[in-house]
Amino acid sequence: MNWLKSIYNRITLELRYRKKLRELRKRDPFIYK
Amino acid sequence: MKILAVGCSFTFGMELPDCPASSYNSDKTPSKFAYPAVLANKLTADLTNLSLPGGSNGRTFRTVLDNSVKEKYDLIICQWTDIGRADLRYEGKDFPVTASSRWLDNDFPWITEYFKKHYDPEHSYQIWITQAIALQNHFKLLGQRYVFLSMMSMQDKQGKKFPHLIEQIDADNYLGWETDEAMVNWMGLCPKGPGGHPLELGHERIAEKIYEHLSNRG
Known about the structure:
Chain A is mostly helical. Chain A has one domain. Helix content of chain A is 79%, strand content 0%. Chain A contains one helix and no strands. The termini of chain A are far apart. By secondary structure, chain B is of the alpha/beta class. Chain B has a single domain (2-217), classed as SGNH hydrolase (Rossmann fold, 3-Layer(aba) Sandwich). The longest helix of chain B has 22 residues, at 121-142. Classes of the chains: A mainly alpha (33), B alpha/beta (218). The A-B interface holds A 17-18, 20-21, 24-25, 27-33 and B 8-10, 14, 21, 24, 53-54, 81-82, 84-85, 96, 98-101, 103, 112, 115-117, 119, 151-152, 194-197.
């Protein structure tokens, strides 16, 4: 069961990172290049 | 009269007719239609604009401080930007990095990893506000005339974590601090480039706002 828990944790962490990046890009959307 | 202006793409004049994003490279000079140039014309002043598209607050802090010691200016315009930007160097030049710089993904995939895993807004806010306080106190010591302004509101939820630092900001020399307004408010509903930057009308409005502030301050 540990492997399942590990995959679950990895997926939730990745989703959290992606949300963070989306919010950062939304706050500073200005493109200069 | 000599003016120094330092900030990000807003102060550089990105996307104005003489600075289209499509032809941008690091040797490009700031726009003659950007608000610092409009203001310098109004005041019949010589302008040095050391802004950089994508430039960070860290770069603005060290560029302004360095130049204020090297040379005497009658007025320094210091424009703060989003706290998330990183102050890096690459091949001997300032290397602007924002979370929206997706063109960096191929050559520098670690940058996206940095924003995902290591970036902390509370930490970045603390870095910015301590730099702003240090710079204003440096100006006070020099007797330097200056104006701070921001691209966007700098009093968001991160600011609430540092009330003891927030109260150190000298609102008299920080245009928009008291009312929590910034350039994105002053430019109002005006034509913008595809990258989100104001075109001529927006810059004229921003220049007018600074001119008004300077006239009121005497």
